[in-house]
Design goal:
Helix content is 88%, strand content 0%. It has 3 helices and no strands. It has 96 residues and is mainly alpha-helical. 4% of the residues are buried. The protein has helices spanning 2-33, 38-63, 70-95. α1 runs antiparallel to α2 and α2 runs antiparallel to α3.
């Protein structure tokens, strides 16, 4: 049982670090949108609102980590990993 707790704790720290880094990048991008022309700012605001909504969804998923039992842990972890990767890809595509 302690191994599962240690595994969850280590994973939570890793996932939290990824989310914190992504949030910092999003905050920086949000600040940069203030300097855009009107048309570009509207599109940027839409993209940022979508990304921020997805970030809130990830926060909710993270809060459910403690409830994931041993039998559902791998599925939970894969789902969260996929969601983080998807969000990072959307953000990277928008920034490029």
């Amino acid at each position: 049982m302690n191994d599962m707790i240690d595994t969850k704790k280590a994973y939570a720290e890793k996932a939290r670090a990824q989310l914190d880094k992504l949030k910092a990048e999003m905050d920086k991008a949000r600040a940069n949108t203030k300097e855009m022309a009107a048309d570009g700012k509207i599109k940027a605001d839409e993209v940022m609102e979508d990304l921020e909504a997805k970030y809130r969804e990830l926060e909710e998923k993270m809060s459910g980590m403690a409830e994931a039992g041993e039998d559902s842990w791998e599925e939970f972890k894969e789902d969260l990993d996929d969601s983080i990767a998807e969000m990072r890809e959307k953000f990277s595509n928008w920034m490029s």
